[in-house]
Specification:
The protein has one domain: Alpha-Beta Barrel (TIM Barrel), CATH 3.20.20.80. Helix content is 43%, strand content 15%. Strands 1-2-3-4-5-6-8-9 form an 8-stranded parallel beta barrel, surrounded by 5 helices. The longest helix is centred in the N-terminal third of the chain and has 22 residues. Bound molecules: ligand G3I. Ligand G3I binds next to loops.
Length: 366
């Protein structure tokens, strides 16, 4: 009898421990607040590293293709599409019971040549229609939301002079959202951009979104990319922007969150990848690992940011990290190439960092 009681007690401990471990996941902890997403690269989509594949399946419930759904990759020539990797992403999401956020339909960067060769509004509109119908149409009903237009506003609030604006004028913006609504009627449609906490840009985005709304096009949300730093932008700046965008009657998503811990050459903000800097020892101080004091600062920064997100969880639909572990991050090569950065919440060995624990601790306090 005694051995049976001991065995039962052991099983209870194992189950409860397992329960605690499964409760450890970010997606589970925040499931009543907002989606917890990550950007996936080719190797992650193909589950090349089984340890990281298990982490992705456990910790995140929304996937964004870091690159494979950009026009230059998925639609490199007018009559040629590459769906293999995007199809694999959707298959992985289905397997893991995760959602997919589509990134991105209309973007001036990584733009296929044939788009840039269109010289009349009619030709470019037709190319946009074909691209959006084919890509958004293929994944219609399986995509929780789309970045319909990405990075169309400059930091000073003016509209970016992209191929789209130069050939079609502002009309391309409403057209993109109308085409996306037709191709995937049930998906939420977002405008996505970086440096979204600066006043001039925020006002420019608000002007643009109001015009899209006035055109009768469906726009459901605004994505703030969240390529931030240890000190900037301030929590107040972020909150001001969340409130200002939500006041338009749209959802807010934090779409590409990472916190740069390295010295910032020329105070480069956001993600304008044309801004480059040379790699120097001064700009790359942590080649042998992140000092404990910086690790602690990063954990506090992430906790402060997530406390703000929880405060406004009624406005926030999703928080997506721009990468899984520090080694995967684009910030190792921007604005200076070949640096050792530590912007995410899992380390290069896929171990949870203090930042992961600090974000999770917020939910335990509830
Ligand atoms: O796949 C090719 C490979 O075949 C080739 O050998 C290699 C050599 O250059 O390039 C590889 O493509 C690179 C791709 O990442 C995949 O690694 C591109 O050159 C490189 O430009 C691309 O960088 C991506 C960048 O967007 C530009 O598309 C970053 O990974 C990605 O993190 C970054 O993400 C953007 C968001 O989409 C929009 N918001 C800003 C954010 C950061 O720039």
């Amino acid at each position: 009898m005694k051995s049976r009681l001991l065995l039962a007690a052991a099983i209870v401990c194992i189950i409860s421990a397992a329960g605690n471990i499964s409760a450890q996941s970010l997606a589970k902890a925040y499931e009543k607040d907002f989606l917890i997403g990550t950007a996936l690269n080719n190797n992650q989509i193909l589950e090349k590293d089984p340890v990281q594949a298990a982490l992705i399946a456990k910790e995140f419930n929304c996937y964004t293709a870091e690159n494979v759904m950009k026009s230059q990759v998925i639609h490199p020539e007018e009559d040629k599409y590459n769906f293999e990797m995007a199809d694999a992403l959707y298959a992985l999401a289905k397997k893991n019971n995760a959602k997919v956020h589509g990134h991105t339909l209309i973007w001036h960067s990584q733009l296929s040549r044939f788009f840039r060769d269109k010289k009349t509004p009619e030709e470019l509109a037709a190319a946009m229609e074909s691209h959006i119908n084919t890509v958004a149409g293929r994944y219609a009903g399986k995509t929780v939301s789309w970045d319909v237009v990405n990075e169309a506003v400059e930091d000073d609030g003016s509209l970016r002079k992209s191929t789209f604006l130069n050939v079609m004028g502002e009309d391309y913006l409403a057209l993109a959202f109308k085409l996306a609504a037709k191709a995937d009627p049930n998906a939420e449609l977002y405008y996505n951009d970086y440096s979204m906490t600066g006043k001039p840009k925020r006002e420019g985005v608000i002007r643009m979104v109001k015009k899209i709304q006035e055109s009768g096009a469906k726009i459901d949300g605004i994505g703030m990319q969240g390529h931030w730093h240890l000190e900037t932008p301030t929590i107040e700046d972020i909150e001001t922007s969340i409130l200002a965008y939500a006041a338009l009657g749209v959802k807010v998503a934090i779409t590409e969150l990472d916190i740069d811990v390295l010295p910032n050459p020329r105070n480069v903000q956001g993600a304008d990848i044309s801004q480059r800097a040379e790699n120097t020892t001064e700009l790359n101080p942590y080649v042998n690992g992140l000092p404990a004091d910086v690790e602690a600062k990063l954990a506090k920064r992430y906790q402060d940011i997530f406390a703000l997100f929880l405060k406004h969880k009624d406005k926030i639909s999703r928080v997506t990290f721009w990468g899984v572990n520090d080694g995967d991050s684009w910030k190792n090569n921007f604005p200076a190439r070949g640096r050792s950065n530590y912007p995410l919440i899992f380390d290069r060995e896929n171990k949870p960092k203090e930042a992961y624990k600090s974000i999770l601790a917020l939910k335990k306090k509830k």
